[in-house]
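Supplementary Methods. Inverse-folding protocol.

Structures were first reduced to a discrete structure-token string of length 199. This string, shown here, constituted the complete conditioning input.
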């Protein structure tokens, strides 16, 4: 099926001041839209135009880098918009998540430190993740458009650390952006939804 650009699940100014309308307009309308448009063209050229985005990601990984980059970034951004909400973030996790974070990630404070370190430590463009692998939560980081799906894991939370995600609002201060993401933007209900689906 052809990739489609989803609407943002909130108004462009809903995440301000932590993520501005200007950032979301460029990030969603220009960057994500380009992944969809280019991804559709490359998927059709590769005879994968009828496959789901997850199938395209797995089939193109390692053998069609341009298609992989665009398909994976489409998948990553579909979820990234839903991993944020107005008045989100903070350490009040829904019960099932709180216990999994405690047992697998050492609790919220250690998650915050390790997830931030993964995002800061990703050299250049990429993503930091919490993913389910072999039934347990793990913090991961990946370059460019790569994601946990191609490492035998299922992402339940991810943060975009490409400069297009934070440069307008934070300039080069990636740690400040990650702090705001964790403290003020994460939609824990959607993280829980992906966790339940991944188990
Ligand atoms: Fe992005």
């Amino acid at each position: 099926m052809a990739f489609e650009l989803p609407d943002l699940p909130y108004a462009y100014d809903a995440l301000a001041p932590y993520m501005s309308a200007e950032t979301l307009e460029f990030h969603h309308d220009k960057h994500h839209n380009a992944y969809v448009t280019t991804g559709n063209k490359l998927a059709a050229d590769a005879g994968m135009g009828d496959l789901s985005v997850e199938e395209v990601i797995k089939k193109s990984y390692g053998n069609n880098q341009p298609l992989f980059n665009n398909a994976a970034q489409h998948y990553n951004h579909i979820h990234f918009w839903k991993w944020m909400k107005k008045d989100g973030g903070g350490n009040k996790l829904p019960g099932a998540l709180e216990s999994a974070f405690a047992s697998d990630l050492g609790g919220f404070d250690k998650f915050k430190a390790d997830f931030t370190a993964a995002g800061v430590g990703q050299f250049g463009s990429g993503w930091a993740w919490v993913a389910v692998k072999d039934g347990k939560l793990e913090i991961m980081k990946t370059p460019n458009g790569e994601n946990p799906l191609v490492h035998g894991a299922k992402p339940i939370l991810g943060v975009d650390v490409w400069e297009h995600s934070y440069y307008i609002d934070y300039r080069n201060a990636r740690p400040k952006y990650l702090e705001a993401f964790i403290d003020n933007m994460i939609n824990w209900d959607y993280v829980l939804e992906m966790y339940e689906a991944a188990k």
